[in-house]
Amino acid sequence: MFCAPTAYRAVRKEDPQGELAKQYDLSSLRWIFVAGEKLDSSTYEWLSELLSVPVLDHWWQTESGWPMTAPMMGWQHPAPARLGSTNKAIPGYDIRVLDGEGREMPANEAGNICIKLPLPPGFAWSIWNNDERFKQAYLTTFPGYYHTGDGGYKDDEDYIYITGRTDDVINVSGHRLSTGEMEEVVSAHPQVAECAVIGVTDALKGQLPVALVVLKADADISAAELQAQLVHQIREQVGAVACFHRAIVVARLPKTRSGKILRAVLRKIAANEHYAMPSTIDDASILPEVEQALIAAGFIETTMSHN
Q1: d(CA 98, CA 110)
Q2: Structural domains of the chain, count
Q3: Both ends of the chain: CA-CA distance in Å?
Q4: DSSP codes joined into one string, 233-245
Q5: What are phi and psi of 197, to 5 degrees?
Q6: Is the pLDDT of residue 306 over 60?
Q7: Residue 93 counted as domain residue
Q8: From CA 137, how far away is CA 241, in angstroms rounded?
Q9: For the stretch 177-207, what's the b/e string if a residue is b when 16 or more beta carbons lie within 10 angstroms of its beta carbon?
Q10: N or C: which end of the chain has fewer CB within 10 A?
Q11: Mean pLDDT estimate for the chain
Q12: What does the angle CA 171 – CA 192 – CA 172 come to, to the nearest 5 degrees?
């Protein structure tokens, strides 16, 4: 079975102990495949314990048409899974990690995930009626490479680790920090079902991270206590340099119909900018809820209209 991590987090929110799964015969289930968003360790462990089958992360994009990294379970000797990694590159993909100047990064150092040209069969050739936009979006930033827009690193054995979209990196007092790394910490809290960490503008530090948190259905904790615990966890695991001080509880997070959290829209709302209603949004009524939560928390004064 294949599904996005967000969908599993939604199930865990309503059924934290997985009681419903115990009412059915799932003996035919061999593997769980996840992709579309970063698989946090909390969701991985919950699924693994509940279903007792391998939970296999892999990575691809709509543009690629097929996975770019995966364990290749159809092979005689599939690559073993590693927590946090989407596995190794599939044949046909020469995946490199580049710095901002296009230089290849050494193992275990994060940078821009790129694919050395030529691209394999099945990959997108262009954008419909807009060849120039395709070139500018994917092929211009790093000549000779397809720019995926994702950040991450390779380990010593060429396992790929996707840390998130490169525009999910925020600048706090000159320090570039991954919101994905902070989301991993927040998601590990036992009362949290899912979360999104975004950067909000700060006059002194440039940007500050804020967590929008959805609690599990059986959660029993005050917003103040949750925030205090999350601040402590981020400080311990990411560091004081993150300047993480705020966690806001929301009822829901906006998602696409395929289950991806719409972080780009959340960033625009937090910046009090006009935004276009995404055509892929599953439930547009969630956005005003988030706006009201940010107003109540004092991050924005009034809501901005959208197109």
Answers
A1: 8
A2: 2
A3: 37
A4: HHHHHT-GGG---
A5: -105, 125
A6: no
A7: yes
A8: 32
A9: bbbbbbbbbbbbbebbbbbbbbbbeeeeeeb
A10: C
A11: 89
A12: 10
234 within 8 A of 182, measured Cβ to Cβ? yes
Residue 153 — φ and ψ, nearest 5°? -155, 170
Residue 77's H or E segment, with its range, is none
- Are 235 and 124 within one domain? no
3-state helix, strand, coil in the chain (%, to 5): 25, 25, 50
Residue (of 237, 250, 235, 232) closest to 196 by Cα position: 250
Peptide bond into 118 cis (omega under 30): yes
Rounded to whole angstroms, the Cα distance separating 70 from 68 reads 7
243 within 8 A of 282, measured Cβ to Cβ? no
Could you give the angle at the alpha carbon of 213 between the alpha carbons of 207 and 215, nearest 5°? 170
Domain that holds residue 215: 167-296
The pair of three-digit structure tokens given for residue 139, joined into one six-digit string: 């092929």
- How far apart CA 148 and CA 69 sit, in angstroms, is 13
Query: Domain check: are 159 and 172 in the same one?
Result: no
> Is residue 57 within 8 Å of residue 34, measured between CB atoms?
yes
Note whether 254 and 262 are within 8 A (CB): yes
Alpha-carbon gap, residue 237 to 187, rounded angstroms: 13
Model confidence pLDDT, tens digit, residues 248-291? 999 999 988 877 888 888 988 888 788 888 888 889 899 999 98
| 291 close to 285: Cβ distance less than 8 angstroms | no
Helix (H) or strand (E) holding 3: strand 2-3
- Residue 272 and residue 268: Cα distance in Å, rounded? 6
Residue that the structure tokens 């999910």 belong to: 168
